[in-house]
Amino acid sequence: MIAVRLKFIQRHKGRDGKVRLYFRHPTLPRQKLPDADSPEFWAAYQAALGQIKPPDPPKRERGKGTFARLCDDWMRTAAYLSLRGPTQRTYSNIIIRMRKEPFADSQLSNFEAKHIRGILKGFSSRPAMANRWLSILGILFRYAVEEEMIPADPTMGIRRMKEKAQGSRTWTEDEIAQYEAHWPVGTRARMAFALMLYTGQRRSDVVRMGQGSINEGLISVVQQKTGTHLLIPIHPSLAEVIALAPEDHKTWLGNTLQGVASAASLGNQFREWANAAGVASDISGHGLRKAAARRLAEAGCTTHQIAAITGHKTLSEVERYTRAVDQRKLAQEAMERMAAVKRNAKFYKDARKSPDFCGPDRDVEVRAGIEPTYADLQSAT
Fold first, then answer.
1. Using CA atoms, how far apart are residues 166 and 143, in angstroms rounded to an integer?
2. What is the pLDDT of residues 176-204, one digit of tens each?
3. What phi, psi does 368 have (nearest 5°)?
4. What is the pLDDT of residue 121?
5. Buried b (16+ CB within 10 A) or exposed e, 91-129
6. What are the backbone dihedrals phi and psi of residue 11, each rounded to the nearest 5 degrees, phi first?
7. Which ranges of the chain does DSSP label H, i.e. alpha helix?
8. CB-based contacts of 263: which residues, under 8 Å, 6+ apart?
9. Domains of the chain, each with CATH number or no CATH
10. Closest CA to 197 of 310, 326, 320, 312
11. What mean pLDDT value characterizes the chain?
12. By C-alpha distance, which of 209, 280, 300, 198 is closest to 239?
């Protein structure tokens, strides 16, 4: 008779002389099994084996000259390592996804523009994500060109997709008033709201603000995303809120003496606070940053002045935030000018009929019904 030795079976003889069987695995808790002769044994043994996690497959060696190797090489460069935390995490998350794609094992020399378009086609319903992938692919392939791995960048000339979404919507004045009416001064919900609205900063920056951030009456902040150093005047409404903050806390939004709230948790909490206030669900804390820029634009501030508060590196971003304000203002000015021209036309026409009108050939003009030119009327505006 052939004896079969089963894996992970431990035999233990008790004081009563009876031998009992146990399933014993290095990473699982020990469990008792039925007697080997009983019909329940095999079912119990198979169930115990089913708990064992299969070993991870061996990692594939990514060959030299492949896209995956390019990703690994670039993530060791100073360009990647010098990125700030949030940007570095965004880049690494996308690159990790790229390394899992089938094209990751392809040789760099095989990539052409048509292949890049094929990769991006998978994001046809998500243009913002497609543009993000295109940007990172461009960074990687430009690095490959610099290191003489390939002669040309296959992403060159590929157009970005048109993004219809405008991102987080700006808060309206009614929504701002509604939130402030629900959350009184002294609450943490009002503190977070006031910091974002009256400093124009991101969540990642307001969570680090505290009494130690005040420098000669200004709030000093180094933006986590860009590294930009700003000194922001304290708005009277914000001064009213921070006056009631605990003085012994490290930050205004921290719950403990040394605690600093995370930007992610603040985002989740703020959504709950906004829901409690009954404001629309399509606005977020980032919309308050836009509302701050909108208010500054409505007050007549230039894009440079607005950027001095928000810390935007490019004025095009500020213009995008304030485009609706600029359009409304320009439209109002244009309509007012057109109305002024019409008023002046009536005044000019009535003046020509007056005996005191001194214009040349007055009688001829009146009889012929000659109207003043648009340039004449504008100059009289």
1. 31
2. 999 999 999 999 999 999 999 999 999 99
3. -80, -10
4. 92
5. beebbeebbeeebbeeebeebeeeebeebbeebeeebee
6. -105, 135
7. 41-49, 67-74, 78-81, 85-99, 113-121, 127-146, 173-182, 188-199, 203-206, 236-242, 263-277, 286-298, 303-310, 315-352, 362-368, 374-379
8. 202, 203, 204, 207
9. 9-49 (no CATH), 67-146 (1.10.150), 173-313 (1.10.443.10), 336-379 (no CATH)
10. 310
11. 83
12. 198
Residue carrying the six token digits 């991006």:
120
What is the reported pLDDT for 368? 43
Per-residue pLDDT of 203-243, as tens digits, reads 999 999 999 999 888 999 999 888 889 999 999 999 999 99
How many residues comprise the chain?
Answer: 381
The 10s digit of each residue's pLDDT in 282-339 is 888 999 999 999 899 888 888 899 999 999 888 877 877 777 676 777 777 778 888 7
Residues near 185 by beta carbon (within 8 Å), at least 6 away in sequence: 240, 241, 244
